[in-house]
Amino acid sequence: MPSTVVASMKYDPGKATLRVVFVSGMIYDYKNVPEEEYIRMKTSGSKGIYLNKHIKGKYEFEKVKNNAFS
After folding, report:
1. How close are the terminal C-alpha atoms of the chain, in Å?
2. Does the structure show a pLDDT above 50 at 70?
3. Nearest CA among 15, 14, 9 for reference residue 39
4. CB 47 within 8 Å of CB 41
5. DSSP structural state of residue 50
6. From CA 13, how far away is CA 34, in angstroms rounded?
7. What's the pTM?
8. Strand order in 6-12's β-sheet?
9. Is 55:41 a contact under the CB 8 Å cutoff?
10. Is the pLDDT of residue 68 over 80?
11. Whose CB among 2, 10, 50, 66 lies 3.0–4.6 Å from 44's, allowing a Cys bridge?
12. What is the rounded CA–CA span in Å between residue 33 and residue 12?
């Protein structure tokens, strides 16, 4: 099901970083996110609700200027 909040997301297992691209165009990297957490979000019925409930406020984050993994 497409999300009205999350446009896309990627996970970098080497850095344990979850990159979330919002529909608004804003991009955030969430640090030290376990891969299992990414899988649960990816398969959830509502990515926006899952993000708000399980990711935001629990993992350090950084706003990113572009959409490339560095």
Report:
1. 29
2. no
3. 9
4. yes
5. H
6. 8
7. 0.86
8. 6-12, 17-22, 27-30, 61-64
9. yes
10. no
11. 50
12. 10
